[in-house]
Amino acid sequence: MFSTGRRALLRLAPLAALPVVLAGCAAGSSAADDDTVAVLASFYPLQFVAEQVGGDRVTVDSLTPPGAEPHDVELSPAQVSRVDRADLVVYLSGFQAAVDDAVAQTAPEHVVDAADVEDLLTLEQEGTESHADEVDEHGHEEGGALDPHFWLDPSRMPAFVDAVAAELSAVDPEGADDYAANAEALNARFEDLDQRYQDGLATCESRTFVTSHEAFGYLAHRYDLHQVGISGLDPDAEPSPKRLAAVEDIVREEGVTTIFFEQLVSPKVARTLAADLGIDAAVLDPIEGVTGDADYFSIADDNLAALRVALSCS
After folding, report:
1. Which residue from 29, 35, 85, 70 is spatially nearest to 56, judged by alpha carbons?
2. Which residues form a coiled coil (predicted)?
C-alpha cells in the first residue's frame, strides 16, 4: 500500500452520500452505447492513455470526475456496478482504496493494474528528502511507502501504454493492429516529451524545488532534481510546525525562488509559506485531473516551463 490511515478504509459510499460521488455518477456510463469496447479508468492519466490507445474503437469513462482530487474518491454502488460491467478496467492498485475494493468485489475479467506494470519506487529510492536530517518524522514515516505518481516521468509511460494495448487486443482481437499503431504513436510522443525535459532541465542554476505535496519524485529522479514536499504523498496531510520550519531552512539555504502548489488541492499553505519567505508561488500540476481543453501533454509542457523559470534554467 502507498499509505496508511483513512485511505485504507472501505469506501463504498451510499448513492447520495457526497458531492464527489454524485459527480462521479454523472461522468458517464461505463457500458458503451454502441459496439465500442467499454473501458473504465480509475483517474485521468490512465483514462488519457486508454483513450489515445483505443481511439474510435473504445468508449472510455473515469471513476474520478473532472476537476476532482483522485486520492480520496468514493464510489457509489452504481459506480461499483460499472466496474463489473466494463469490458476493461484500468487502475492503479494502492492509490484509490475505493477502487481497489470495487475491483476485488467484482473481479472483472480484463484488468490492467499499472502497479503490476510499473516498477514503483519509494520516496527514499527517488532521492526525495535527501535533507532527512533537517526534516521531521513525516519524511521517515512515508519514506518506505511506494510513490504512485509514475506518470509524471514520461519515460515510464510506454510500458503502461503497451500493457493497455495488449489487453485491449485481448478484449477486441480485430482491433489489435489499430491498438498497436496507436500505442506506437503515443509512445513516440512520450519519448519526445522526455527529451524536451532532458534538454530543458539540463543546465539550471538550482536543482531543488519545493512542492505542496510529494507527487514529483519520479520526475525529480529522472531529471536529477531534488524534490522537497511540504506535505507527504497524501495531499491532504497537514504539515507540522517542525516540517514547515525545515522547509523554510531549505528554501533559505538553497536559494529556492518558488514554492509550487497544485490546482486540485487548496494552495493556502504553499501560498502562505511563499509570502512569509518573500518568494513566488506558482502551479506545478501533478496531472491527476484536468479541466477545460488541457490534456496530459499540454500540462506537462506547462510544468516544464514552470520548472525552468523556478530553477533558472538556460
Report:
1. 35
2. none
| Segments of the chain assigned E as strands | 37-41, 58-62, 88-91, 111-113, 208-213, 226-231, 258-261, 280-283
State the Cα–Cα distance between residues 62 and 29, nearest whole angstrom. Answer: 9
Please report the domains of the chain, with CATH numbers, ordered by start residue.
5-117+151-192 (3.40.50.1980), 202-310 (3.40.50.1980)
> Do residues 140 and 117 make contact, with C-beta atoms less than 8 angstroms apart?
no
List all residues 6 or more positions away from 203 whose beta carbon is below 8 Å from its beta carbon: 313, 314
CA distance linking residue 236 with residue 17, whole number of Å: 20
pLDDT digits over 157-211, tens only? 999 999 999 999 999 999 999 999 999 999 999 999 999 999 999 999 999 999 9
Q: Give the residue from 300, 241, 252 showing the smallest Cα distance to 274.
A: 252
The mean of the pLDDT values for the chain is 87
CA distance 43 to 27: 11
Strands 37-41 and 58-62: parallel
The dihedrals phi and psi of 227, each to the nearest 5 degrees, come to -90, 135
